[in-house]
Design brief:
It contains 48 helices and 7 strands. By secondary structure, it is mainly alpha-helical.
Length: about 900
């Protein structure tokens, strides 16, 4: 495949990867230290790909890479941008806006990444593609994230991605599940062969010393002979054992630089700091640095010294260590002068000009600081929050006024919150706290500090403090900040009980601000969310009154929809919560806002489980974990543990439920989070009841109703009522359960919570004496349970079982049949088995249960099959699920035989109808 010395094994692996790519996508990272030969291997792979008919798209990261968002992605995709008109409109606009080729709304980074993936898919339909990415660690951050997003989803596309990454530089490509090939040094034989080609005039002792120092590093084997000759055999360092090889190589290049003419050194210095390697920029910048025009011929001495090459447009350094060697050979003053000179020639590129000006300064410069703050808006328009954060943080460093500096740091922290970066938020807030902040900025800092610290148990003083700050913020005219603070206070009350007084204080402050601002405040979703999350029982009637004026179809802001869904869950209305979350999810998919999508997917899992949409709950959990990982938000990945434990528990997957619950308990116990601990007990109790361990189930669930227990929660206990009653019926705890539920009913008698009402109706019927049970069963089944198939089926199962025990066998069969059908459709296997056993006890013949679609297909396959059955095309499904159309098609190809069908038209009839 190539003439590289000592790399036969690596080249064979790359050859195999390219051979497989004709039928499916593949990605590989070449990892290794500087000079180990990563670039040579990558270039050899690219040459081989071209001979195999591949189209090669390549890009190299540059150190230092300017903070221009998606600059690397634009260079990579430039040759295939002629396919851009084939993209869905939203993706096309996002991609072109990110590249500053079109004016559009600030694009979401993951919509840009999806646009890049779809563009590659379109181009690959004409020819297989190799993405050859060198020094990926030095590409701009948004490009790295987009490349990692695509690499994970190449799936069935005839696209191969091979990227080199220098060891010791973590990044997105090393954090995803793709193969990594670590390049080691050459073996002794290959090292001797390579050295012989470059050191034939050096004696045996010298070659042995070089071999020892090089340790199989190919670049060292090529470059150290020159350093050896220059030092007349003394060696590249007086004591090389204590100097890293990379530093010795940099010095070897730097020594060569010192012998060049001063004008050539000026050119090299400008080239080293120019992130685009643009020849015209380098010539003009060197002229600015020197103070007189520079001739292009002054680059020739650097070419003769094998430091670089150039063509009509760009300069190409022989190796990245040449660039770092140049920078290390120059003083800080000279580097600052070079940045200033280059900035002077970039008048038509304000973003890059400001970036270089910022690198030319030590100390304070308010003019450049102001420019940097303005430039962060350019970064946001191009879809890069990380670049905007860098601009604001550097702006703060250059700012003289303490209050302005603090404001810029807090603005950066707000953007960091949007990325889910708790570490970055804490660092920026800590830095801002050292400044003299205005009262509003101190309030803003209090809110930002709360974002990743909700749930300090019993901290009623902090809740009160947040309410006071919110009131002052509202008085100062910042309603949005006031509502954010109150929502933070409410979440403290939700996650861990802060006491009745603290909850009442939040409600009183919210209502006071509502009185001051009128409809402007009351119509804000944060207003109703703060009320319901802080006081989900006492404030429930008021919350329902406010929600009654919200028309689902008219709400277009996905974050507002998320808040409405959250408060509906808080007060015990899962049906309405699911409706809000479903619309929020659709809007977020349209906008490509994956960061918030992971929140919404996770938050709806609990409610979908309760209403019996277990298929969708599984899909939400699976995709939520993937999206949380893609967006760097592990907190939302961890948050699914307790919810998955509940789902697995009621499904009867006892061991898995207990395992998930234990992991969730470990995460929650350190902070004594009552809400998560309530979910843990619900999972354990549900798993025990579903598998007939009724005494164990009762003991676990009973804790949720004890106010002194750490798992007690005002409204999460609603979800355990029916399970508690069922466990009590089978383990002799009826009297105790009746006492618990009677007290709960007295406490919540005026609460309009569907979860509470439906669960209590079930419980009273199950626990009733025989002379009262039938009336209670009929009343419970007469409720509107159209959107509650899980609870309706359990009622039918319990009623049918009661009828059979009363020897009313014929009457028992109808509710038992209905229960069995619904429970099988939901995937409630153990409960369906109970219904089947009860039917057999009535004398009815019951066939064995076949495999349900939940068992035949994975959660993602079910999601794709459902969307296809609804009539969506592969492209439309891909847009919704952030997959390429070809990957969707491949999934459907595997789905059809699993379901025993041969065409898309049969999907709807084969999938179980709700």
């Amino acid at each position: 495949m190539s003439g590289l010395i000592g790399r036969a094994s690596e080249m064979a692996q790359l050859s195999e990867l390219l051979a497989d790519t004709a039928s499916r996508g593949a990605a590989l990272v070449l990892l290794g230290e500087a000079g180990i030969g990563k670039t040579s291997v990558l270039q050899a792979a690219a040459d081989h790909a071209r001979t195999c008919g591949y189209r090669v798209l390549d890009v190299a990261g540059v150190e230092p890479e300017a903070q221009l968002p998606f600059a690397g992605l634009q260079r990579l995709l430039q040759p295939v941008l002629n396919y851009v008109d084939a993209l869905p409109s939203a993706q096309r606009v996002a991609l072109l806006t990110a590249f500053s080729m079109e004016n559009g709304p600030a694009p979401q980074p993951f919509l840009v990444a999806l646009g890049a993936l779809t563009l590659l898919t379109e181009a690959a339909a004409d020819s297989s593609i190799l993405l050859a990415i060198d020094d990926a660690q030095w590409l701009d951050s948004p490009t790295q994230e987009a490349v990692a997003f695509a690499a994970r989803r190449l799936g069935q596309e005839p696209v191969a991605l091979v990227a080199t990454v220098r060891q010791g530089h973590p990044g997105p490509l090393l954090e995803i599940d793709i193969p990594i090939l670590t390049l080691a040094g050459l073996d002794d034989q290959a090292s001797h062969t390579l050295l012989e080609a470059h050191a034939h005039d050096i004696d045996a002792a010298g070659r042995a010393r070089i071999l020892s120092e090089a340790m199989g590093n190919p670049l060292a084997l090529v470059e150290l002979p020159s350093a050896w000759r220059a030092s007349r055999g003394v060696g590249s360092d007086a004591d090389p054992a204590y100097v890293p090889l990379t530093a010795r190589l940099e010095r070897a290049f730097a020594a060569r630089i010192g012998e060049l003419p001063s004008v050539t050194r000026d050119l090299l210095l400008i080239a080293a700091i120019d992130d685009e390697n643009n020849l015209a920029e380098v010539i003009a910048g060197a002229g600015q640095l020197l103070g007189s025009p520079v001739d292009i011929e002054m680059l020739n001495p650097a070419v003769d010294a094998s430091l670089l090459s150039f063509d009509t447009q760009r300069i190409h350094f022989r190796h990245p260590l040449v660039r770092s060697g140049i920078l290390q050979s120059e003083s800080m003053t000279r580097r600052h002068q070079a940045h200033s000179a280059l900035a002077a020639v970039l008048a038509e590129q304000p973003y890059r000009r400001t970036w270089h000006r910022a690198q030319a300064i030590v100390g304070v410069d308010d003019d450049v600081a102001d420019e940097l703050e303005a430039s962060h808006l350019i970064a946001l328009r191009r879809g890069s929050v990380t670049s905007a954060i860098w601009a604001l943080e550097r702006s703060a460093q250059l700012t003289g006024d303490s209050a302005t500096r603090g404001r810029r740091l807090l603005l950066a922290a707000e953007h960091a919150f949007g990325l889910g970066r708790a570490d970055l938020v804490d660092r920026l807030v800590t830095a801002a706290a050292r400044d003299d902040l205005t009262e509003l900025d101190r309030a803003r800092m209090a809110w930002i500090s709360e974002i990743f610290n909700d749930g300090v148990p019993g901290d009623s003083l902090r809740v009160t403090e947040l309410c006071d700050i919110a009131a002052r913020s509202a008085g100062a005219g910042d309603l949005g900040l006031a509502l954010n603070l109150l929502l933070g206070a409410a979440l403290r009350c939700w996650w861990a009980d802060a006491g009745a007084a603290a909850r009442a204080r939040v409600v009183a402050t919210v209502e006071r601000i509502g009185g001051e601002y009128g409809r402007t405040a009351v119509d804000d979703p944060r207003f109703v969310a703060a009320l319901g999350v802080a006081e989900p029982v006492a404030a429930a009637p008021r919350v329902c009154e406010l929600l009654a004026s919200v028309v689902l179809e008219t709400v277009t802001d996905p974050d507002a929809l998320r808040l409405y869904g959250m408060v509906c869950h808080a007060i015990g209305d899962p049906v309405r919560a699911v409706d809000f979350f479903t619309r929020a999810e659709a809007k977020l998919r349209e906008q490509g806002r994956l960061g918030l999508l992971s929140h919404v997917l996770t938050m709806q899992l609990y409610d979908r489980t309760e209403v019996g949409d277990w298929e969708r709950a599984e899909a939400c959990a699976e995709e939520g974990k993937l999206v949380a990982r893609d967006t760097g938000q592990p907190i939302w990945n961890d948050g699914t543990l307790s919810l998955m434990a509940i789902l697995r528990g009621v499904r009867g997957d006892y061991d898995e439920a207990i395992q998930f619950a234990a992991q969730a308990e470990h995460l929650a116990n350190g902070r004594r989070l009552n809400d998560l601990l309530a979910c843990v007990q619900l999972a354990r109790g549900g798993a025990a009841v579903a598998t007939g361990k009724y005494a164990d189930g009762y003991a676990e669930l009973r804790r949720m109703f004890d106010p002194s227990d750490s798992s007690f929660h005002l409204t999460e206990r609603y979800h355990g009522i029916a399970l508690l009653a069922e466990a009590a019926l089978h383990c002799g705890q009826i009297d105790d359960a009746v006492g618990v539920l009677a007290a709960l009913e007295r406490e919540t008698q005026a609460i309009p919570a569907p979860t509470l009402r439906i669960n209590l109706a079930y419980a009273w019927a199950v626990l009733a004496a025989d002379d009262q049970a039938e009336e209670l069963y009929k009343a419970a089944l007469a409720q509107d349970l159209v959107r509650w198939p899980w609870m309706r089926a359990r009622l039918e199962l319990a009623y049918g079982s009661w009828l059979r025990r009363q020897r009313r066998v014929a009457e028992a069969r109808q509710p038992l049949r209905a229960a069995q059908t619904t429970l099988e459709l939901i995937g409630a296997t153990t409960w369906a088995d109970q219904a089947r056993a009860e039917l057999r006890a009535t004398g009815e013949k019951v066939s064995a249960q076949g495999s349900s679609t939940l068992e035949l297909l994975s959660a993602q396959e079910l999601q794709i099959a459902r969307l296809a059955a609804e009539g969506l095309s592969n492209r439309e499904i891909g847009e919704r699920l952030f997959l390429s159309p070809r990957t969707v098609g491949s999934h459907l190809y595997r789905i059809f035989p699993k379901l025993g069908i041969v065409s898309r038209a049969q999907l709807a009839s084969r999938l179980d109808a709700r």
